[in-house]
Each structure stands twice: as structure tokens, then as C-alpha cells.
Amino acid sequence: MTETTAPDTADSDSTQRFTALYDTHAELGASFTDFGGWQMPLKYGSELAEHRAVRATAGLFDLSHMGEIEVTGPQAGAFLDHALVGKLSAIAVGKAKYSLICAEDGGIIDDLIVYRLAEEEYLVVPNAGNAATVSSELATRLAGFTGTDADGVTLTDVSAQTSLIAVQGPNAEAIVRAVVPAEQGDSVTGLRYYAAVRVTAAGVPVLLARTGYTGEDGFELFVANDDAAGLWGALRTAGEEHGLVPCGLAARDSLRLEAGMPLYGNELSRDRTPFAAGLGGVVALKSKENDFVGREALQAAKDAGEGSTGGQRLVGLKGLGRRSARSHYAVLADGAQVGEVTSGQPSPTLGFPVAMAYVDVARSEPGTRLDVDLRGKAEPFEVVALPFYRREQ
């Protein structure tokens, strides 16, 4: 990077985008990388140390490149049932649900989290690289939504005004509780997984969610851009006695891989359906009476047994040697290609190489021995159930 101060480009068409915390990261000596057009911290020092801090104590992440789309109105739930594959109208107020937005042909456009903040208020959080696409796609689907009149739903993309900070790890609860008023402490400790509540943190309004992408307990805090730097600083101060470490995207990627969590562009894409990706349970074919985008194609994929009796299935691979597989490496059986690695690297927590890959269903059962072509040399791997790592409860 040649710039040390981020320009005010949040609402511009610049090819480079910067979060409200960019200057903070630069002051901490972060190494930056492009991610979906955003300049994001890759690491601050040792990515291995950052990974291990999240598993042992706590890590602090800037996720402000993620999107935030408000969906409000008396028919908001019905519209999301139409636009997404899950039954979002069934979410209780204060809870969240993992879902997918699929194309008419069943291909995955993005995976996302939907929060129900009030009876007629939802928040859709898509991935950074797909935020604009999801916002546009929801607007298109609203224009064709015939379940209600045009005044029943309002879409508001608040991505450019919103920052997102995550605290992940065994000590996350103690750190977050330290920055909220004493009278709101129970709102932190009593918050369940995949739930959200509005609190005051470091003196500013925050939407606090108990969600994350690391396999550890943790929280994600949605806050206005102007308040992001102050909240980040308060969390760092509160975390000093709890081993809190600022973490970049490198650690986030290794953590999510250990936890068997898919990444859009790697495990998920327009070329894959939820069934092949092992996410068939997210698709509400039985519980939703009305039509939704992609329903016909997804029903056909399920009826054909896609991901269970034919085609390919997403699996975990445990390395039996020391060398790691990487994205796009060929998976082999008896020398013939039967799949392709989507993500792979050494596991800092487990001490052996791990990978996710799409392989032919006939080769997808746990215990199956396969090879990965590592630059011309076959390296042994074994199919294992996901996730690789599961935290102690």
C-alpha cells in the first residue's frame, strides 16, 4: 500500500474501498490485501499467532466489508420467503437464520445470515464480494413479488453506513460484557447462538449478535461508521487482560476451514446447488407453501439425489502426510481425477493438513482413501466428516 490514510470512498465508484477502520489497521502495522474490492487487513504480525489466539483467548476482526440490507414492512417476511430458500417468516424476533439466495436454476448466488429485529424488520447480511449483487437481486425480486401490494416491503441498503466488528474466542463474552453498561450485562451473557439484541457498547448504539465464522463462541457488533474506531479501541482496551489480539483475513480463513464453514467462491458458487454443498437442510421445500425463486430447480435436484446419489459432494479431507492441498488441486483415485480441492492448508490447531473438496459421490464416504495431485506428486488424504474442529461446549 502506498496510502496511509483512506480516502472517503465508501459511497464512491472507486475500484478500491476502505472500511472506517482502515487508518486504525494501518497504525497497527497491518498487511493489507484486496478482498472483493476492499483493502482489508490480511494479518498484523503472525497469522499463526492470530489463529491460536482465537482458539485460546480471543481475536478482534474488522468485517465492515460485509453487506447490510434492511427489509421492512408488513410483508417483509413473506417477501424473504419468496426471495430466499429458507422460511424466514418463521424466525422469532431477536433470532437469526443462515440462508441462501439461489438463481432460478438452483445455483447459489450467495450464502447469508438473516436477523429478525422486530415483527416487521429484518436485516440481511450478504458476503462482501456479493453485497451489491444481492442488493440488486433482492430489488429485482421485489419488483416481481406478487404476494402483496408494492407498499408491503421496503428495501434499504445500509452497507455504506455500517461497520461490523467481531470478537471471537473463549474470552469473547467477558470482553464484550466489559464495554456494555452493567445493567445490560445480562443481555450479553444471556444471548443465545444465532440471536441478536440492541445494546449500548462503549457509549454508542450497537446491534449485538452472537454469531461468527471461526468455530468459536463470539459476537458480531454492527455499528455506525462514525462510531467504529471508538468501539474498536474500547474492545482492545477491555481485551488486554483477556489475551485479545487483532486478527486479519488470513486467520479468519484458517479458522473457518478448521470449522468446516464454506466460503463463497470456494465451496459455494453459481455452479453448485445447496444439495451438492451439503446444505440441503437450508432449503425449505416442505415448510413453504408458496413459490420461491429457484424452487422448481431445487426440487428437481433433490428428487434426482444430487449430492447424495449422483454428481459430486462436498467433503472434508484429512492429510495423511505433511504436505497441504490447495484450492483447485485435483483429487485422484487410482490415478484418475475424481474431484477438486476448494480450500486447503495446514491446520494450526490439529497439526495435520485439512482441505475441503468436491468429489464423486461414490468416493465421498468417510474413511475413503484418496490422493491429491500436489504439483505432480500424489499425496495421501482420507475423507472425513466435517467439521474438522469442534470447540468444547
Automatic annotation (TrEMBL):
Broad enzyme group: transferase
EC number from the UniProt entry: 2.1.2.10
UniProt keyword annotations, A-Z: Aminotransferase, Transferase
Catalytic reaction(s) noted: N(6)-[(R)-S(8)-aminomethyldihydrolipoyl]-L-lysyl-[protein] + (6S)-5,6,7,8-tetrahydrofolate = N(6)-[(R)-dihydrolipoyl]-L-lysyl-[protein] + (6R)-5,10-methylene-5,6,7,8-tetrahydrofolate + NH4(+)
Residue ranges occupied by any GCVT N-terminal domain in the UniProt entry: 21-286
UniProt xrefs under InterPro entries: GcvT (IPR006223), GcvT/YgfZ/DmdA (IPR028896), GcvT/YgfZ_C (IPR029043), GcvT_bac (IPR022903), GcvT_C (IPR013977), GCVT_N (IPR006222), TrmE/GcvT-like (IPR027266)
Signal peptide (from-to): none
The keyword Transferase is annotated on this UniProt entry: yes
Function: The glycine cleavage system catalyzes the degradation of glycine.
Subunit structure: The glycine cleavage system is composed of four proteins: P, T, L and H.
Protein family membership: Belongs to the GcvT family.
Name this protein carries in UniProt: Aminomethyltransferase
Species of origin: Tersicoccus solisilvae
Gene: gcvT
